[in-house]
Amino acid sequence: xxxxxxxxxxxxxxxxxxxxxxxxxxxxxxxxxxxxxxxxxxxxxxxxxxxxxxxxxxxxxxxxxxxxxxxxxxxxxxxxxxx
Length: 83
Fold this sequence. Notes:
It is a single chain. By secondary structure, the chain is mostly helical. The chain has four helices and two strands. The protein has helices spanning 3-10, 30-38, 49-57, 63-80; strands at residues 20-21, 27-28. The protein has a two-stranded antiparallel ribbon. A hairpin with a 5-residue loop joins strand 1 (20-21) and strand 2 (27-28). The longest helix is centred in the C-terminal third of the chain and has 18 residues, at 63-80. The radius of gyration is 15 Å and the shape is globular.
C-alpha cells in the first residue's frame, strides 16, 4: 500500500463520521452538526427527520446545506424506509 495513502487512512477521525441521535430520531454526524450550527439552523427543535428535511430545503442556494440535505435524505431512505 502506498505510504501516503496509509498515512491518510491512519489519520481519519472515524468518530466524526459516526451518526448520533440528536433528538426526534434524527441522526447526524459531527460535520453535519457543525455546519448546521454555523448556519444557525435549529435542527434540535425539529420533531422528526421529515421536518428537518423540509427546513433544509429552504436553504437550497447554499451548497453546504444542499450537500447535507442530500446526505440526510439518503441516510433517512436507507435507515427508515421499509423495503
